[in-house]
Amino acid sequence: MLKRALSVRCLSGEAYANGMQLFTMTLGALMSLNFSTYLLLPILYPLKLTSVNEYIELRFKSKALCSVIFLLNIVKNLLTSGVCLYAPTVALVSITNLGNLTNIFLLGIVCTMYSSLGGIKAVVWTDVFQISVMMIGLISVLTIGVSLNGGIIETLYIASEGGRLEIFEVISYNVFGIFFGIYFLIFFAGLAAYANYAGCDPMALGIIKRKEEIIPYFVMDKLSFIPGLPGIFVATLVGGSL
To answer: How many percent of the chain have pLDDT more than 70?
Structure first.
């Protein structure tokens, strides 16, 4: 879930700055989901395994290899979790009075507590709640942002004029998608922000320093007149971080 908060900031900022090219990653997501569902699960599910380590030990008959992979996985999770914890705090700092370290500490404590105390059941139900909050927040921001532009057609026209609808241009990214619908909302939120700021780019004016800050800035600058909407957006970021 931490990566979803990263996506809300980074992918919407990417759509704002460079267009919809990264949206092609959802095609890879759909293929990988079908591959896993129809080819891998029928083989692995009957084995009644509880972890990848258990499968490796069963397949290669080596506890040493299992231990090495376990340690590598721990290192990988520590590194990626650190990055994913830090990323949403950059956005939270811009719309709250809390510092980076405070946000990192709070998010880390909450994640650790509900995972440790509630186990996998808590993780599953938390994911359900989080994705619901994220969908509500993204749909709210997108709906109001598009309406400020004069509608979907006008938003797409402005984005097209700025070259932001070029999906299949060659790009130097290698990333993987997870879920088509939520990524569509994230990317389109970036287009809505671009259409609002066409001709007065906050990055060019020096108001924000990174493209990842555009959606938090957009919410506070253009949408804060709606009571509760900034709070919903904060909940979207926090929900994706837990």
So the answer is: 81
Sign of CA dihedral 176, 181, 187, 190: negative
- Side-chain-side CA neighbours of 80 within 13 Å: the count stands at 11
Domains: count for the chain: 1
pTM: 0.63
Range(s) of the domain holding residue 209: 2-241
Residue 37, judged by CB atoms within 10 A of its CB (0-12, 13-18, 19+), counts as: exposed
Distance between CA atoms of 151 and 143, rounded to whole angstroms? 9
pLDDT at 175 over 50: no
Residues 95, 230: contact at Cβ < 8 Å? yes
Pairwise CA distance, residues 221 & 230, whole Å: 10
**What is the model's pLDDT at position 179?**
47
